[in-house]
Amino acid sequence: MSRSQDPRTFRPPDWAPPPPHRHRDYRDHHYHSQPQYQPQHQRYRPAQPSHPPPQLAVFLLRTGPDYSAPTATEVEALVGGLPSPAPASLSVNSSGRLAARLVFRSLREAAAAARELWAHRLEGHHLLTPELRDPALAAHASPLIASLFAAHASRLLDSDLSVLSAARSAEIAASIQAVKGRLGSPNRFRDFNQLILEMKTLEAEKELVDAKIAEYQAAMRSIQRAMLREADDYEGVDVFGSVQGVEVDSARVHKIMLRECRRLKEGLPIYAYRRRILNHIFTNQVMILIGETGSGKSTQLVQFLADSGLAAGGSIVCTQPRKIAAISLAHRVDEESNGCYGDNSVMSYSTLLNSQGFGSKIIFTTDSCLLHHCMSDKGLDGISYIIVDEAHERSLNTDLLLAMIKNKLLDRLDLRLIIMSATANADRLMEYFYGCQTFHVKGRNFPVEIKYVPDISAEASLNTLPSICSVACATASYVTDVVRMVSFIHKNEEEGAILAFLTSQLEVEWSCESFSDPNAVVLPMHGKLSHVEQSLVFKSYPGKRKIIFCTNIAETSLTIKDVKYVVDCGLAKECRFIPSSGLNILKVNWISQSSANQRAGRAGRTGAGKCYRLYSESDFGMMEVHQEPEIRKVHLGTAVLRILALGVGDVKNFEFVDAPDPEAINMAVNNLEQLGAIECKYNGFELTDIGRHLVKLGIEPRLGKIMLDCFSSGLKKEGVVLAAVMANSSSIFCRVGTNEEKYKADRLKVPFCHPDGDLFTSLAVYKKWEDGHENKNVWCWQNSINAKTLRRCQETISELENCLKHELNIIIPSYWRWNPEEPTLHDASLKRIILSSLRGNLAMFSGHEKFGYQVISADQPVQLHPSCSLFIYDRKPEWVVFAEILSVPNQYLVCVTAVDHDALCTVHPMSFIKELEMNKLQRKVITGIGNKSLRRFCGKSGQNLHKVVSLLREGCRDDRITVGIDFSGNEVLLYAKQDDMEKVFCIVNYALELEAKLLRNECDERRPGCSGLALFGSGAEIKHLELGKRYLTVEILHQNPWDIDEKELIRLVDDHVPSIANFYIFGSFQSTSNEMKWGKFTFLKPENAEDAISKLNGIEFHGSLLKVVPVCSYKNPGLSFPAVKAKVSWPRKPSRGHALVTCASGEAEFVVKDCFALGVGGRYLNCEVSKKYENRVFVTGVPFHITEPELYDAFRGATTRTILDIRLLRGPSTAGPSVSECEEALMREISQFMPNKNFPGQKFHVQVFNPEERDSMMRASITFDGSMHREAATALDHLQGSVLPCCLPWQIIQCQHVFHSTVSCPTCIYNVISQAVGSLLESFRSKKEVSFSEPL
């Protein structure tokens, strides 16, 4: 087969796609195990000589995932097209990696055939790789193949790809000239600035394209020199120095050339800077590389270093903050460099065990693994280059790793450090590394349109909401907003994956379950997924949109190619350590601006995209520019352990990149000393055996200490599981979603709840799960348990067991000794162990549910989290320990465990415990109090009780003192410290006795005639009958009646004059000369009233003197009717024409249907269900003169559904008449209906109240004399619907008559009429503005 007869299209190598990743452990027996195809041509079967000459074989190897192409027929045709001489023998395999074996008689023939096969391969006629295994044959053919590759590299300099790149450069140059021409003509200032910006952009792009072309040409010339063994005339680092001066590996060089062509075609920005970066690295021991998002720094720099040969015999280690980033980057680089470096040249090490020995050319690992590698006395031997990626995140491990490497650089001058960051905040790192050099690489981000959507409900384009919005959701509002926005994008935007950021694993998984669409593939992405589960987000799903709900793990490092839309809630959940209290606070906070930009950049990696930010632009402006280093936010126990493991004894003087709070260091040191992990020696600290074990385990010190203590107690299995579930305790139960879903989850949790708290409950759940079920996922779903979290716990346990086996030689048994269903001594042991490790997080029950638990270290009350297992038990444990405090926004204790009182002495002195218990609230009950006395003691809306409690708290200086009322049991509950209880009891008991006394003496006044007065007590007993002219009632006058505490005044009167029969407080205080009337007291006897005049007059009370005057019965024969009171109001803010109608639950839609085309005031109203408020109807088109009562009557007439309230939406208040002007206007309007128009004020009183700024109505009170019932009714009818002369036309008056009536009768009579009275009262329930109290 000649080349001219080949029917296949020519495929130059620079256009070929990268070969897929495949297993590299090839062995010959794989080839021979495949069935062989023997061609029938006789010329391939020469007669065998008696003395066979030496056989020299050329092997043809297939590529591809399944080694199926080309077929045996195509291979036979390829070999048949070779020029003479033909092979002595040929064997062809129909499948497998070995495609064919060609045997020749001489070196010359075999070498010529190999060269010809390579020539066909380079020209794209086949995809087979020739291989020469015979050393003599390889040496003989090497010059021929090398010259062939050199010529091919020369041709590639002028290939179509090079021409296209040069054409692009010329096109940009022409555009630059065009812009310059436009700049030469007259332009507006704004256009001139835009043209300058456009020209600078074009010049930068041309410079980048030209630099890429130059890099490509330099690479091909480097390959030419290597093939021809020519001297290098370039002064800098050779980009392919690794192939210079070594035996030619044709397959490797071919792969390198293919990869170089792909690099030019893909055009990653960092490719244009390759030689400059390499020269920079070569001349500097430390370099900071700032590569913007999309520059390709994470995947390309390691390959540049490996290609250049700078690493010599050492490894190139690239660290990542997260395991998934290290694994995915290693996989990506392995695919790109397939065949360029040899087998197992690119590896990822993501666990502590894997980091025990680094043996690859390129290594991707986590910063914690490399740090652990150094702490294990292995140092950095065998490592030439360390690349610390994503340094802008400033994680704790990154900072410690940089500090460790800084010390190593002084001892090893051949060691190089490259710090890579996606943001330009590198000043602190430059200063830390003695002013090291910084290199900037521009990114390749496509335009990303930023849309700020702070309120989804207010956005007109988002008024069609998904079904999730109709559910009353107790999940955080930002979670539902994210799901709603994702739904909107999915239904309205073009193709492209959606990446939505949330704050936690539970939120991510709840969102995945809540979002359902047959045309979408919904995937979670968070740090607790397995590698297999995480890898699903990188796959393509043809015909369906990929939607990913993720945490901030997807902010950096990872590139999901088809992401076009990003939804950013602007929040992240972080755990912050408070040194002053020694507590970890888990809280949802705003992210930084750099993080927000990183999230937005995810949408512009492979094309233009959009980022929907669910917050305002002003919120973005108020964010911190860069995130705070983690070392200043977290507990430093792990950091101190690792610093000591590195051999640094003086932790306080350790050279941190950013020094943490000294108090945080002291707190960490103290905690580690309490755990027994470190000890002070020779003015420094050293690790104990426990500390060294904790370092080897590589987990948080408290969890490690729990494990080790459990081992000492014979609870090995329990210790490992306890550490794993404690690390994942926040997501074991699926308690998210609506209130109903949370309630259901809590009910399903009950069978697992343990009386000793959350950790024991989590242990019980894992034990049940591990015991085995036919379908564990179904079992988890039925019990509202997170199956993914339990699988994560299982993986953690497996890792810990392997680590314990290899590092500490400890074997973990498979059996349990603890049984959650049978209380044993193991319960006490586990509680003691947990207390020992969490001693800093001790809390005592405050004594009252309202105040929860008193956290000892912070001296503040915190409630248990609603999901706590202890809530299902009646009695709260006196002492607990907890893992951390969750702030969302109220603070809660999470992961709570009860501890025994007897065990407290192991962590604190008993004197300290007793002192704490003295501050605990004690409980005391006062019984035998009548229901009516209790209600009088409480007062209206609890006002009297509130005053009593305020007095007690002020007197005892304790804001926790509480007085509770149990009306069903007729009890008063007192809560106070033991030292204050006696005082609290005396004050409350005195107040109760006073109420009881007043209730016993309470009388009702009746006037049988014009000159008589009778006092009737309970049971209509006549307490006193006054037929003379003596008085029983006195009035109290005071300059400031508003300041008077009625209970305090009653006690004062009762102390001086006993036998109070009744008292009355005037609703509106009436002025008389210098004093104002507060109220009046009625006594059982005239002598008591006279004593009040003599004893109370002139007593100083609240800064003024009391004045007491008699109310003579003979001068006031009594009125036949009580006073008439009315409330008057008119709007001070104009109506906007909109109203909100509050309906009963679930009836809003029915009200809208019933009130369709409802006419009010000559206009039709438009009604729709409110999108912002639940159970409300939004009404538009309301005439401006219509009032709320008119609107209420209209709706009541149109629908039978329950209307709870109607509120008109009003605009800003207008400048109106003053209060005094309004009072005068009202008096003029009423006076015309009074019998004595000259002195109208004697029969009624008007008071207009000063409005608050937020009040939409002006309000007034009108009180008429009891004899003016008819005149009052006429005057009020006149005011109703009218407008005061001093007001605007829309300020229409509304009057509300206030009538009070009381019916009293003996019990025997009430028993007879009770049913009729009850029916009458029930009829009042549906009437607006009518209230009543049921019989006592």
Set out the fold topology.
Blueprint: H1 28-32, E1 36-37, E2 56-61, H2 72-80, E3 89-93, E4 98-104, H3 107-122, E5 129-131, H4 135-156, H5 160-184, H6 189-228, H7 250-266, H8 274-283, E6 286-291, H9 297-308, E7 315-320, H10 323-336, E8 346-349, E9 362-366, H11 367-378, E10 383-388, H12 396-411, E11 416-421, H13 427-432, E12 437-441, E13 448-452, H14 477-492, E14 497-501, H15 505-514, E15 520-525, H16 531-535, E16 545-550, E17 563-568, E18 571-578, E19 583-590, H17 593-601, E20 609-613, H18 617-622, H19 637-645, H20 662-675, E21 678-681, E22 684-687, H21 689-697, H22 701-712, H23 716-727, H24 739-749, H25 758-770, H26 776-782, H27 787-808, H28 825-837, E23 842-845, E24 853-855, E25 860-864, E26 879-881, E27 884-887, E28 891-894, E29 897-898, H29 910-918, E30 922-926, H30 931-938, H31 943-956, E31 962-966, E32 971-976, H32 981-1001, E33 1004-1006, E34 1013-1016, E35 1022-1026, E36 1033-1038, H33 1046-1056, E37 1060-1072, E38 1075-1083, H34 1086-1096, E39 1100-1101, E40 1104-1105, E41 1107-1111, E42 1124-1131, E43 1135-1143, H35 1148-1154, E44 1159-1160, E45 1163-1164, ...
Parallel strand pairs: 6-11, 6-12, 7-9, 7-10, 8-9, 10-11, 13-20, 14-16, 14-17, 15-16, 17-20, 19-27, 25-28
Antiparallel strand pairs: 1-3, 2-4, 2-5, 3-4, 18-19, 21-22, 23-24, 23-26, 24-25, 26-29, 27-28, 30-32, 31-32, 33-34, 34-35, 36-38, 36-41, 37-38, 39-40, 42-50, 42-51, 43-47, 43-48, 44-45, 46-47, 49-50
